[in-house]
Amino acid sequence: MMHSALSLLRALGTMAALLLAAPALTAEASGSGLTLGPTDSKNVLVLHASNSVQVFRGVLEDFSMLNPGVRLEYTELSTQQLYRDTVERARQSGARSGPDLVISSAMDLQTKLVNDGYAQVHVSPETRSLPAWANWRDEVFSIGTDPIVMVYNTGKLAAARVPHTRRELLSLLQAPDRPLADSISTYDVQGSGIGYLAATQDTRLDSMAGALLAAFGRNGVTIHESTEDALDKLERGDITLAYNLLESYTRHRIDQGAPLAIIYPQDYTLMLSRSAIIPKQAPRGDLGALLLDYLLSPRGQEMLAKQSGMRPVNASVIPAAGVRPMALGVGLLVYLDPLKKRHFLDVWRAAIQVP
């Protein structure tokens, strides 16, 4: 209770100071970053995240409008880079450095950072209102969920042949006319945190996962490093179908007119969390907490759903069979064990025939 009261007092103090300073907003954007707010502000909030700048920009602009005294510096990084940077900074020095909030779709890596002592505790009314699966140890929090789906180019695959389960996808890969030969893509699980999480969860949940991987290999599967990379290939018509993509980015492309369609696998649909931590090394953990609480607030959740396509945390459990979010917690750490990871990657490389 004492910790909660102190957190609340600190947050109120931060908000009061920021409301006193309200200079005109400025915005600067680059390919992998975005800066909002006054250049001379003493309140600098550094955010590192795996969210696409294009998809996340509207949410950050709304936060900036509500907190005009804050200069927000956003950098988009891969999930693996976010993890490595957090560990490296903590090991190099005890000094405060780096981002004040880290948001990643590799919820297993975020959970490992917490488990290994690299995150701060944050307690607020917003974090307390989260369901149990979305808050682990008051140190890592789901800010929204994103179904992992299959996506196909509607001009390259007839509706009658669209697979609705992994078994149907396997049958399509084994069809005599080989409609997906050299025209299917999946995540590079060696370089992508999301890809590794999705693939290991498939192995855990699906007895056909090995057969599906082997069929990918026989059909000359290509690998993508990100959902955006795969969507580019699909939109150009370089491939027909991509396995394990994020729904939110795909919806954004479809809304822009891309000839794509989403498949929600009926056997099970994985739902990952975009999860947030305040690193131990954060120079302005109070500002990181301010942004986190905004993202978890009713307004922030509405903006996330509207601007980024993520599903609000409290609307993430879908009654349809098998569609439910993965819980934050130690269960996500199983395949991060070095021996298990090495074995999984060896099997994956051999199955899909990549060096």
Low-confidence stretches: 1-6, 19-25
Average pLDDT reading: 89
Please write the CATH class name of the largest domain: Alpha Beta
What structural class do you assign from the helix and strand content? alpha/beta
Signal peptide: 1-26
Protein name: ABC transporter substrate-binding protein
Keywords: Signal
Organism: Achromobacter pestifer
Describe the structure.
With 355 residues, the chain is of the alpha/beta class. Helices cover 42% and strands 20% of the residues. It has two domains: 28-145 and 272-330, Periplasmic binding protein-like II (D-Maltodextrin-Binding Protein, domain 2, 3-Layer(aba) Sandwich), CATH 3.40.190; 147-271 and 336-352, D-Maltodextrin-Binding Protein, domain 2 (3-Layer(aba) Sandwich), CATH 3.40.190.10. The chain is built from 13 helices and 13 strands. Strands 1, 2, 3, 4, 5, 6, 7, 8, 9, 10, 11, 12 and 13 form a 13-stranded mixed β-sheet that branches. Strand 6 and strand 7 form a beta hairpin. The model is unreliable at 1-6 and 19-25 (pLDDT under 50).
In short:
The chain is α/β, with parallel strands linked by helices and 355 residues long.
What order do the helices and strands come in, and which of them pair?
Blueprint: H1 2-20, E1 27-30, E2 33-36, E3 43-49, H2 53-66, E4 70-76, H3 79-92, E5 101-104, H4 107-115, H5 125-128, E6 135-136, E7 140-153, H6 166-173, E8 184-187, H7 193-205, H8 209-218, E9 222-224, H9 227-236, E10 241-246, H10 247-255, E11 260-263, E12 269-277, H11 285-296, H12 298-308, E13 323-325, H13 338-352
Parallel strand pairs: 3-4, 3-5, 8-9, 8-10, 12-13
Antiparallel strand pairs: 1-2, 2-4, 5-12, 6-7, 7-10, 7-11, 7-12
